[in-house]
Amino acid sequence: MAVKFLKPLADASQFPAPSVTATPKFRLSDLDLAQHTQGDVRETTFTRNGRGAIGIAGTALRKENVNNVILIPAYHCPALVEPFIWLGYEIRFYPVQADLSVDIAVLEQAMAKGDITHCVVVRYFGFGQNNDEVIQFLHTQSVEIIEDCAHSLFRFVDHFADSGKRVPDVSASICSINKILPTIDGGALYLKDKYEAKLTHVGWSEEAKACAFIVGIPQMLAKVKSLVNQSKPEQVPQISDPAEEDAHLRYFQPIDLASASYRHTKTIFCHSNLKHIRKQRRENFEFIVKNIDNPEVGNALFKQLNDEDIPYVIPFLLQDEKYFFDLRKKGIQILRWEEVAISDCNISQDYRSRLIQVPCHQQLSNRQLNFIVDTFNQLRP
Fold first, then answer.
1. Is the dihedral of CA 93, 97, 102, 107 positive or negative?
2. Tens of pLDDT along 25-46?
């Protein structure tokens, strides 16, 4: 059965430029060139983006002379699914529960036909759910396990901790660097069985333009010279090849499979002060969740952090989707996964409109944190 994605429910053009952005911007002060990301990153492939990493993993793990059938959680961003569509996998969705955990009995039932070859496990928003138990169960099945750490850069990095050797519990793991760190691009891929992906870097002139962009030089010049209308969004340097675009896919493009990240993305990845970022994201999460008190509007999906949780955002379940528009109009760049595929999972079909992603990144100021809290608390039905 062909995968059909639901249409977006809103567009960024409907809202003013945000005063609180969803992701951090680059600051030299966040780098520490004297330190290096813990562990050995020589086993990591740095790709243009997370979907490129997924596509390379799907290519490396695809089995010959059989029908490749992959199980993917029904709650997802299309960027997770599209690479497997392009690679010709048969895609089946398995449901998630209200807390985004997985009912292993239901997953076992999905495996009962015996034709599943691959399974994706998602660490939503930097939280573990019951993923370790799911992975343990999948080890009893003859499937390739793909761990989606797009929101969980720290889980990805921690795989290399201590001995410097990857814990061999999954066939592949991916993360999206630019969801946590202030980079333009960047996916990272680990494969249990080494795969020689031949990735191409952009030219040095494009590299220089991208470096200038992340430190804000073009943006500053544009403001000073008034060359750009202030209502026009910032234009991130584009490195895709239009001739390679696949029109029926909204996010994934085949060129992603052959494109390396910017060189400076790896530098930022390796030299960011991850200890500080871990601490700050946890503190910001705890401050916001503790101080928002407006149950008529909604509640955080998770109220507490365990020792391993490093939040990408705060997943917040609204009582009514109308509050999404109210919050965006107030200038908070909240996000949501609107374009999930049609499936039998009632949770994913509901959460596309009501489960929002509230910023808690490491660069939020005290003023911004209080603004988020006050905006939520001032909403009225």
1. negative
2. 888 777 877 766 655 566 789 9
